[in-house]
Structures are given as structure tokens and as C-alpha cells.
Amino acid sequence: MVPAKTVARPRGLRGLLDAVLDLVYPPRCAACGEGADGAFCATCAEAIEAVPPGCGRCGQPGPDPTCGACLSHPPAFERVRAGGLLGGPLADAIHAFKYGRRPALARPLGAWLAARVSLPPAAVIVSVPLGRARRIARGYDQASLLADALAREAGAGGRRLRGVLRRIRETPPQVGQGRAERARNVAGAFVASAAAAGRDLVLVDDVVTTGATADAAAAALRQAGARSVLVLALARAE
User: Fold this and answer.
1) Which residues are CB-neighbours of 111 under 8 A, at least 6 positions away?
2) Is 97 exposed, middle or buried (0-12, 13-18, 19+ CB in 10 A)?
3) What secondary structure letter does DSSP report for 167?
4) What CA–CA distance (Å, rounded) separates 128 from 114?
5) How far apart are CA 128 and CA 96, in angstroms?
6) Phi and psi at residue 232, in whole multiples of 5°?
7) pLDDT, average across residues 19-33
């Protein structure tokens, strides 16, 4: 197992490099491709919906402060927070990031998420790892890149922890599956190292749908001794 370690980058040098890149490649909206001062142009940014009130645990929109699923089977994480509701420009941007071979979108999307959701002061940032086969096919792990960008933009680069969580078996795509099927697919799919012990963790992913993947990953982290796990995503599905 690769030892877990924190990664800190010099903000001054990185900021200079980012400024140069912005001059050579002017920022464009992650959703529509128009010029933008940030992740989204003004039109797309206005169209992104906030996550409506719902379950205080998994974030599922609805009338109940705690949904039935969380009451009957409390997840291993404390809470889910997301930048917006999945759909419209936000869904387009995430699709481009994940499937459009556009890893550079991690930077603006990470900055956008850091501005939308504040991080707990002392929390350590980890990410939901992609399976090896999909990582090779895609060429990158989008959640890991997003966590890197989020940590840098939030000034938490020294609290970005790598190698603590591993996916130990491939899981089939979850698209179109219900909560129970998703939970079965990812049960036991993750293992965490002792580096999680005693830490308050922020677990980063691109999208939370039913929360099954986040729950399985958080369960591995808690089993390894993590004190708490907060799940943070770009989007929450309805």
C-alpha cells in the first residue's frame, strides 16, 4: 500500500502559473464554453439551482428532516453537502469533466465549490477513488483532481491526504440503479489505512446520488478509526 501523505503546494508559484495559463487560454464556461470569469458564465451560473431543503444526513431533497433510509440504516458519514442540484449547466460541466477528457476543469470547478461550501477549519481532505480500470480508460481520477483543486483554493493544501482510501474491487456503473442496487454494488469495495485514525475527514466526490458510494467509502474510513466523515460534492441528485 502506498503510504498516505499530505500534499502542500506553494500558492505563490501556483498562482503565477495559473495567471499565465489564463492569459494564454482565457477561462471559458465549463458548461457552455462561452467566456467566463470563473467556472461558469453569468447565464449558466444563474441557472444552477441550490440543493433544496431535505434530509440533514444524506442531503436527499424532501419534506423530512431525516429521510426514511437514513432512519432505518444510518450512513457512516455525518452529512452530505453539495455545491448545487444536479441538472442544467452543472450537470453539463460535470459530464464534460468526467467523460469529455477535460481534467483541467478540476481547477475552476474546485474553486467554484470552495466558494459555495465552506470547509470545517481542521478537516483533512480525501477523495473517493476511481476504480483502476476506469482510471486507466479515462486517464485521470476526477474526484482526486477535484480534491486537489478544492484544497488549494480553500487554502487547505497542507490538509490534503492521499493514499488513505483505496478501492479494492471494480464496481459496475451505477447509472440507472436504485438505492438498494447501488448499496450492494459498492458494499466492501473500499479499504482505508490507519492514517485515517483520529481525523475529521472531508470526503470529496463529483456527484452524490443515493449516497451509497459515499456511505461505503465512509464506512471504510470509520473502520480505520476516522473520527468523522463529511461528504462534499459538486452536485446532489434529487
Assistant:
1) 38, 39, 149, 153
2) buried
3) E
4) 17
5) 19
6) -130, 125
7) 71
Spatial separation of the C-alpha atoms in residues 234 and 146, rounded to whole Å = 9
Q: Does domain 5-14+50-236 have CATH number 3.30.310?
A: no
Higher pLDDT, 177 or 159: 159
What residue type is assigned to position 2 of the chain? V
Neighbours of 98 (CB within 10 A): 19
Q: What is the mean pLDDT of the chain?
A: 87
The per-residue DSSP string of 21-81 comes to HHHHS--B-TTT-SB-SSSS-HHHHHHPPPPPSB-TTT--BSS-SS-HHHHHS--SSSEEE
Helix, coil or strand: residue 207? strand
Cβ count near 71 (within 10 Å): 11
Amino acid letter, 21: L
Contact 2, 11 (CB under 8 A): no
> For the chain, what are the domain ranges?
5-14+50-236
Confidence band for 6, pLDDT divided at 50, 70 and 90 = very low
* 3-state SS, residue 85: strand
pTM of the model: 0.85
Distance CA 211, CA 19 (A): 37
Vertex 13: Cα angle to 10 and 19 (nearest 5): 130
